[in-house]
Amino acid sequence: MQNLKDKVAVVFAATGEIAGAVARSLAQHGAKVYVIARNPDKLKVVAQEIRAAGGGIVEAAGKVDALNETEIDDFLGKVVEESGRLDIVFNGIAVEYGEMGGRPLTTVVSLQQFMAPMEKICGSQFLTARVAAKYMMQCGSEGTILLLTAALSRSKLPNVAGITAASAAIEGMTRVMAAEWGPNGIKVICICPGALMETKRISAWIEAAAKNYGIPAEQLVAQYKAFDILKTSPTLKQVGETAVFLSSDAGVVFNSHIVDVDCGKLNIL
Fold first, then answer.
1. Minimal CA–CA distance to 199: which of 228, 240, 160?
2. CA–CA separation, 213 and 1 (whole Å)
3. Nearest one of 34, 22, 123, 120 to 82, comparing CA atoms
4. Taking the model in full, what pTM does it have?
5. Which domains does the chain have, with CATH numbers?
6. Strands in 72-143 per DSSP E
7. What is the side-by-side order of every strand in the sheet holding 32-37?
């Protein structure tokens, strides 16, 4: 299918597993995709893999810091100058547990560790979204800005106050941005994937948590999957295909929404 034919997309932090999956799906559905990240060498590999999978036009645009507004502005300006439009933007930036000091108790975590996810993931989403909106307005693209959050925003888990607060903030920001930019035809939607068992991030977390609690990793996985409504779990490909649908003409029915990609969970509001 080519339901994104002639669309121009930008994917930030494209060397990440989720962002890479989104870039792959966007390209396979006909979009011209610019992939960017802070590691140019890894980025070239991602672009080559997408092309090898029949991904169409993919540009490995090089190093852009998604926390540097000047770099974001310069880059998106070049995209619009080169392609004449900007239709889709996705930011897959993530934060490592190490940046938060692991998973310390809220009574122990420092303010700096607590604020790390707010600055990195929420701050980055804020910057890339607002600069993208500016260029979409300038070139008349009634585009789609896709933000990324985590189900922690609506969960009750200990020792993750910082990333939980940041995830909730991104969801609130989605609604505000959609209300502000809707009159210009710009959709703002937040994708919220469930735990993607195939990713290195989740497998590493399971391994570390199992070691910390002194229980088998399989037990932790079983405890998480006990809340599944269906006997299946989401995949990276499904996250990418969801991004395609939300960015397509049919996806106009979703705007300002938090779209859960988790096959349904009993423990998520």
1. 240
2. 46
3. 34
4. 0.93
5. 8-196+234-261 (3.40.50.720)
6. 88-91
7. 58-63, 32-37, 8-12, 88-91, 144-148, 187-193, 258-261
Do the beta carbons of residue 247 and residue 7 sit within 8 Å? yes
Which pairs count as long-range contacts for 216-223, CB under 8 Å and 24+ apart, including other chains?
221/197
Instruction: Tell me if 22 sits within 8 A of 243, measured CB to CB.
Output: yes
Q: How many CA atoms lie within 13 A of 98 on its CB side?
A: 3
For CA atoms 138, 144, 150, 152, give the dihedral sign: positive
11 burial (CB, 10 Å; 0-12 / 13-18 / 19+) is: buried
Distance CA 243, CA 63 (A): 23
Where do runs of H (alpha helix) occur along 3-64?
17-28, 40-52
Both structure tokens of 170: 């991104």
Indicate the helix (H) or strand (E) that contains 211: helix 200-213
Secondary structure (3-state) at 193:
strand
23-32, 134-143, 222-231: the lowest-pLDDT one = 222-231
Q: Which residue has the tokens 């540009």?
A: 59
CA distance 119 to 128: 13
List, for residues 173-218, the tens digit of each pLDDT value: 999 999 999 999 999 999 999 888 888 877 877 887 788 778 888 9
Other CB atoms within 10 A of residue 253 CB: 9
d(CA 264, CA 232): 9
